[in-house]
Design brief:
By secondary structure, the protein is an alpha+beta fold. The chain has a single domain (2-145), classed as 3-Layer(aba) Sandwich (Aminopeptidase), CATH 3.40.630. 28% of the residues lie in helices and 38% in strands. The protein is built from 4 helices and 7 strands; from the N terminus they run E-H-H-E-E-E-H-E-H-E-E. It has helices at 13-23, 30-37, 83-97, 112-120; strands spanning 2-6, 43-50, 53-63, 66-74, 102-108, 124-133, 138-145. Bound molecules: coenzyme A. Coenzyme A (COA) binds next to strand 4, helix 3 and helix 4.
């Protein structure tokens, strides 16, 4: 059974940090997440659980009528099962429900899996930040969903 939940306490942080370790080279620290949780009007963190176990998560900031997606990951053993698509649809619906129908994010130019997921979710390319990422250095594509261009 798949469920989604907004994280409002530190209870799920161990699971999220463990996911980060296998998904990202330079993940956020526990202190980063703790700071986010202290600002619930702006910072949103969601987990996706399968049979009660956290296998995916997403974090975003709400900025007026937009959200900025910061982190999005599924555990490698749960990829290509439509869970990323479901999590993305869930957080976009939650964002709309709080008055933020527009969304933006940065993604590595070589991240074909994420790009395909975001394009399927209605995001389009809106810009490029050169050498935005390190380890390895790489450009970021800026994607938008919603009304054209930054609001
Ligand atoms: C990107 C990521 C979240 C996708 O999650 P997922 O659960 O595997 O995605 P889904 O199974 O819901 O796939 C949805 C669509 O995304 C695309 N997609 C997902 N993985 C893909 C891959 N490896 N190659 C190409 N397309 C892929 C496909 O279009 C897919 O639809 P389809 O299965 O009908 O073809 C996952 O690969 C991940 O966690 N990657 C590491 C972290 C990361 O890069 N996060 C994004 C940072 S911006």
């Amino acid at each position: 059974m798949t469920t989604f939940a907004r994280v409002t306490s530190t209870a799920e942080l161990d699971a999220i940090l463990a996911l980060d370790d296998v998904c990202f080279h330079h993940p956020w620290t526990r202190a980063d997440y703790e700071r986010e949780l202290q600002d619930p009007a702006r910072c949103f963190l969601y987990v996706l659980k399968v049979h009660g176990v956290v296998v995916g998560y997403c974090s975003f900031w709400r900025i007026f009528d937009e959200i900025h997606l910061n982190n999005f990951a599924l555990h490698p053993s749960h990829r290509r099962q439509g869970l990323g698509r479901s999590l993305l649809a869930h957080v976009l619906a939650e964002a709309e429900a709080i008055g933020a129908p527009n969304a933006t994010l940065e993604v590595r130019a070589s991240n074909t899996a994420a790009l395909a997921l975001y394009h399927a979710g209605g995001f389009v390319r809106a810009g490029l930040r050169r050498a935005y990422y390190t380890h390895p250095v790489e450009d970021a594509l800026i994607l938008w969903r919603g009304r054209p261009g930054p609001s």
